[in-house]
Design a protein that fits this description.
Radius of gyration: 23 Å
Distance between the termini: 17 Å
Helix content: under 10%
Structural class: mainly beta
C-alpha cells in the first residue's frame, strides 16, 4: 500500500476523481457561499503522475466548468476523461464538451451544443467514438413550504429530455421514450455483456426507505396499492447498436431487457461494476433475511447471491445488531458485516472473500475498504473528517484528519 497525501503535494483544495493509466485526475474546487445547495465549484483540473511524482495543471481557461465524467477500460472498454463548460445567454445555455489527453494533458473541444436555459442540469454519456447522449433536467424551484421542510415533490423524477448527438456529422436525435428518461436517476453506462457492447440502465424513482414507507402504509390500509410507475425498480440492458438505432428511428419505447425487477414489495439498488461483474442489492419488505447482494456475471448473465443476514447465529462472538457496508467498484472488493460486541468496540467480518475477521474501537468509524487483505481503512466525520489505517497484522493504527479515496493499492488523502 502507498499513501498519497495531496495536501503535502499542492497547497490547494483538490478532490480525486479517478485513476487512469498510472495518473490521478484531480479537481480543484472552491467554496460557494451564495448557493445554499452547492458545496463547491470546480475551477481547474490537475493530473498527478504516480510513478514520476509530478503534478501538472490542465489549462482550462476562463469558462465555467459544469461537470465532468470519465470512462475506464475495464468497464467501458476505453479510458477517457471529459468535462463540460457552460456559457449562459439570455434564453439558452451554450455548452462545450472537452476531452483531456491522459498523456499530454492537452484539451480537445469535442463538440458544442445548446439548450433552453430552463434545463440547467445535465448528465452526459459517451456511447461511441462519435456519439454522445445528453440528458437534460429542469431543476424544480422550491416553494417556501418545501424549503422550510427540506422536502421536494414526489413527482420530481429523472430527466425531462435526452438528445443523442453525432459529433462528426452534426446530426442529433431526441429520445422519444419518456419512461426511460423519467426513470433514470444516475445509473447508465456502457459495458460488455455476453461479448456484446451494451448499455446498462437502472430505472429507479424512490430511495428504499421511501418505498418501505409506502409499502407499510398500503398494508395498514392508509394508501391504495395501484400499479404506479414510481413503485418499480429495475436493472435493464440493451445492445449498444440497437439502442442507438432505435433512438435514431424515433422509437417511443426502447427494447430494454430486464436483468432484475422489483415492485412495491421490495427494492433493487445498483452497487457497483467491474470487468467481470455487475453488483446490486435486492430486498423484500416484511420478509426476514431477504436482503442480499447479487453478483451478475457479465459473460454468462448468471447470478450469484450473497445473503445479508440480519443476525449471525453461527458466530460465537454474538454480533448484535448486524449491519452491512460495502465497496464493490475498486480492486479490493469487500462486503463488511459489522456489529457491536461491547459499548465501544466493533466486530467486522468480510463475507464475500472471507478474508477478514477483526475487532477495533468504534471511535475509529466504519470500515470502507481493505487493501491487500491487511490494511483496513475506516472513516468518521466526528470532529471533522478522519481516516484511519488499521494494520490488522501488527494492530498499528494511523489516523489522518483527511478524507480519502482508494485506487487499487493507493490510499489518496485530501
Amino acid at each position: 500500500m502507498e499513501i498519497i497525501d495531496l495536501k503535502k503535494i499542492l497547497d490547494k483544495k483538490l478532490e480525486p476523481v479517478c485513476k487512469l493509466e498510472g495518473k490521478l485526475f484531480l479537481r480543484q474546487t472552491v467554496k460557494v457561499f451564495d448557493d445554499l445547495f452547492k458545496d463547491s465549484d470546480i475551477v481547474n483540473y490537475y493530473i498527478y503522475d504516480i510513478e514520476n511524482k509530478e503534478m501538472t495543471a490542465i489549462k482550462i481557461g476562463k469558462e465555467k466548468i459544469l461537470l465532468d465524467f470519465f470512462q475506464q477500460s475495464e468497464v467501458e472498454g476505453e479510458n477517457g476523461f471529459y468535462y463540460v463548460t457552460i456559457k449562459k445567454q439570455l434564453l439558452i445555455n451554450e455548452y462545450t464538451l472537452n476531452s483531456v489527453n491522459i498523456n499530454t494533458c492537452e484539451i480537445t473541444s469535442v463538440f458544442k451544443f445548446e439548450m433552453d436555459k430552463k434545463f440547467d442540469s445535465l448528465l452526459v454519456e459517451k456511447l461511441d467514438v462519435d456519439k454522445f447522449l445528453v440528458f437534460f433536467k429542469e431543476e424544480h424551484q422550491l416553494s417556501f413550504e418545501e424549503f422550510e421542510s427540506f422536502e421536494t415533490p414526489i413527482e420530481n423524477y429523472g430527466y425531462d429530455k435526452a438528445i443523442l448527438y453525432n459529433v462528426n456529422n452534426g446530426k442529433h436525435f431526441e429520445v422519444e421514450d419518456k419512461t426511460f428518461i423519467r426513470g433514470l436517476r444516475s445509473v447508465f453506462f456502457k459495458t460488455t455483456l455476453k461479448d456484446e457492447k451494451c448499455v446498462v440502465y437502472e430505472e429507479n424513482y424512490l430511495e428504499p426507505y421511501d418505498k418501505e414507507q409506502i409499502y407499510n402504509e398500503v398494508h395498514r390500509g392508509s394508501k391504495s396499492k395501484k400499479d404506479k410507475f414510481f413503485y418499480w425498480d429495475s436493472l435493464k440492458y440493451l445492445q449498444l447498436e440497437k439502442f442507438i438505432t432505435e433512438i435514431e428511428d424515433g422509437y417511443d419505447k426502447l427494447s430494454f431487457e430486464d436483468i432484475e425487477i422489483q415492485g412495491l414489495d421490495g427494492y433493487e439498488f445498483f452497487s457497483g461494476v467491474d470487468k467481470d461483474n455487475i453488483y446490486y442489492e435486492v430486498n423484500k419488505f416484511g420478509k426476514q433475511n431477504s436482503d442480499a447482494m447479487i453478483i451478475l456475471n457479465k459473460e454468462s448473465l448468471e447470478k450469484k447471491t450473497i445473503a445479508l443476514l440480519s443476525d449471525d447465529k453461527g458466530d460465537e462472538t454474538n454480533i448484535n445488531p448486524t449491519s452491512y457496508s460495502w465497496n464493490l467498484d475498486g480492486k479490493h472488493k469487500a462486503i463488511f458485516q459489522r456489529g457491536l460486541i461491547s459499548k465501544g468496540r466493533l466486530k467486522i467480518k468480510e463475507i464475500m472473500n472471507g478474508n477478514i475477521n477483526y475487532s477495533y474501537e468504534k471511535k475509529l468509524g466504519y470500515p470502507l475498504e481493505c487493501i491487500n487483505s491487511r490494511y483496513l481503512i475506516t472513516s468518521t466525520s466526528r470532529e471533522g473528517p478522519n481516516t484511519s489505517i488499521i494494520d490488522m497484522e501488527t494492530n498499528k493504527i494511523q489516523t489522518y484528519k483527511r478524507e480519502h479515496t482508494v485506487f487499487e493499492d493507493y490510499l489518496v488523502l485530501f
